[in-house]
Specification:
The chain has helices at 50-70, 89-102, 109-126, 180-185, 233-259, 277-283, 289-292, 306-315, 324-341, 349-358, 415-425, 438-447; strands spanning 5-7, 24-25, 30-31, 78-83, 138-148, 151-160, 170-174, 191-197, 201-208, 211-219, 268-273, 295-300, 345-347, 361-367, 372-378, 384-390, 398-399, 406-414, 429-433, 450-454. The chain is of the alpha+beta class and 460 residues long. It folds into three domains: 5-21 and 327-454, Ribosomal protein L30/S12 (60s Ribosomal Protein L30, Chain: A, 2-Layer Sandwich), CATH 3.30.1330; 72-176, eRF1 domain 1 (Translation, Eukaryotic Peptide Chain Release Factor Subunit 1, Chain A), CATH 3.30.960; 191-321, Nucleotidyltransferase, domain 5, CATH 3.30.420. It has a five-stranded antiparallel β-sheet. A five-stranded mixed β-sheet has the order 10-9-8-11-12, with helices on both faces. A four-stranded antiparallel β-sheet has the order 6-5-4-7, covered by helices on one side.
Length: 460
């Protein structure tokens, strides 16, 4: 998507999405993901697959976590409480009451007042629950956040039924909300060690779910095949073999340092590079013996810099057949194949939205890194237009492209929520696509992070 905003042609009221359901209960201040347990499927007329529903819930949680991480307190006054499902609500209320009493000893009047107000708000939220929290527990965030200009705003959020059980009760008061345990729960499944090397360089990293993470790199001192003058061929060959051996040991050391501590969590190790380098490396038993046993295979890879780690994942697609990133690649390959025929593919906000409303989209493809809002405008003559802007930017003024009149803002919402709501009503599956491979990056950079695979050609 070029620039900060994109404006689209007028539409009629019949195009508008009706009956959208907010995820947040404004009256109670409780924020839940689809108002249901994370592990339950949403009840709707057109039920999506379990995987699609899980993807949406993960997105909802990530969105709230990003919001919470952006908040800052002017002191240690932001309170976070993690409550496991087997902890009685009465025990939690008693703990909060005790913390409220102890907070009276805080010297700073402002901090003392803000902490006690946060604790009072948490007690109010706990009244909505019976004896125990929901399945998998819950997390409550409350505190006075910095609103700028020396002002503060009181914020309280409740997240019910996270993707994994809350393991233990935890009370935390600091200048930031404690979100790390929730972020860990949202880590994509699958953990693989990645090694790419030739005789010049090597890179070591992780494949975590959909994310390729480069961690360590090394350059070799292996001389070229042509010896310098004054050296015998035999001596040169011996020195070269020693340099190769030393480099392989260095690469194995990097891999061992990174992978051994995680060996019980590892689903496998992938090794890539040109022949015979990768073969010599594996056949020489340089890796720790427990890592050697986890090697899933060796794969031909042309590049051994950080991009080579992504190439390795591509080359190992058969070994990674059940992993999420491979599924993402299949979706994008089908999209590009359909796009090349010029028929059963769509991209961009306007065209994709129109196809969604027509019911022609089989799968809605959304970039995981898309962070944009859609603003709905209406001019005095009834023309309605949409504008997509960066989520961090303020709402711009808008002039109707049909009549030139100044248009008023009717609504502003997350563009992903906007499109997913239409998709759900039309029985369209939503797939979130990682940017950790070339075609995933293209979805975000070249197509604005929005595309669709069509059931049939519409000419839109």
């Amino acid at each position: 998507m070029e620039g900060d905003k994109t404006t689209f042609r007028p539409t009629t009221r019949s195009d508008r999405l009706l009956d959208r359901q907010p995820a947040r209960d404004e009256k109670s201040g409780i924020f839940t993901v689809l108002a249901t347990s994370y592990h339950e499927e949403t009840s709707m007329s057109n039920t999506s697959t379990t995987g699609d529903s899980t993807d949406r819930r993960k997105y909802e949680f990530r969105k709230v976590i990003e919001e919470l991480k952006a908040y800052e307190g002017s002191g240690t006054q932001l309170v976070t409480i993690y409550i496991p499902e087997d902890r009685q609500i009465s025990d939690v209320v008693a703990h909060v009451t005790q913390e409220h009493s102890e907070a009276s000893n805080i010297k700073s009047k402002q901090t003392r007042t803000n902490v006690q107000d946060a604790l009072t708000s948490i007690k109010d939220r706990l009244r909505y629950y019976d004896t125990y929290p929901p399945e998998n527990g819950m997390v409550i965030f409350s505190g006075a956040i910095d609103a700028g200009g020396g002002q503060t705003d009181m914020v309280t959020r409740t997240l019910e039924s996270p993707p994994q059980p809350v393991e233990s009760f935890r009370y935390h008061c600091d200048s930031d909300f404690l979100t790390e345990p929730l972020e860990h729960m949202l880590t994509d499944s699958g953990l693989f060690g990645l090694v790419v090397l030739d005789r010049r360089e090597a890179n070591v990293g992780w494949l975590k779910g959909k994310r390729v993470e480069p961690v360590k790199s090394a350059s070799s001192l292996v001389p070229g095949k042509q010896r310098k003058g004054g050296q015998s061929a035999q001596r040169f060959a011996r020195l070269r073999l020693e340099a190769i051996d030393n480099f392989y040991q260095e690469v194995a050391g990097m891999a061992n340092d990174l992978f051994v501590d995680k060996r019980h969590e590892l689903d496998g190790v992938l090794v890539g590079g040109p022949s015979p380098t990768k073969d010599e490396f594996l056949d020489g038993d340089y890796l720790h013996h427990e890592l050697q046993d986890k090697v899933l295979g060796k794969f031909d890879v042309a590049y051994t810099d950080e991009s080579g780690l992504k190439d390795l994942v591509d080359a190992a697609s058969d070994a990674l057949a059940d992993q999420e990133i491979v599924e993402d690649k299949r979706q994008m390959e089908e999209f590009f194949e359909n796009l090349n025929t010029g028929e059963e593919a769509t991209y961009g906000f306007e065209q994709t939205r129109r196809n969604l409303i027509m019911g022609s989209v089989d799968r809605l493809l959304i970039s995981e890194d898309l962070r944009s809002d859609v603003i709905v405008y209406e001019c005095p003559n009834g023309h309605e237009e949409f504008e997509v802007v960066d989520a961090r930017h303020s709402t711009p003024d808008h002039e109707c492209s049909e009549c030139g009149e100044s248009a008023a803002v009717e609504a502003r919402e997350d563009v992903i929520e906007h499109l997913m709501s239409i998709a759900e009503q039309r029985g369209t599956a939503t797939k979130f696509i990682s940017t950790d491979f070339e075609k995933g990056e293209q979805l975000l950079d070249a197509f604005g992070g929005i595309a669709g695979i069509l059931r049939y050609s519409t000419g839109v």
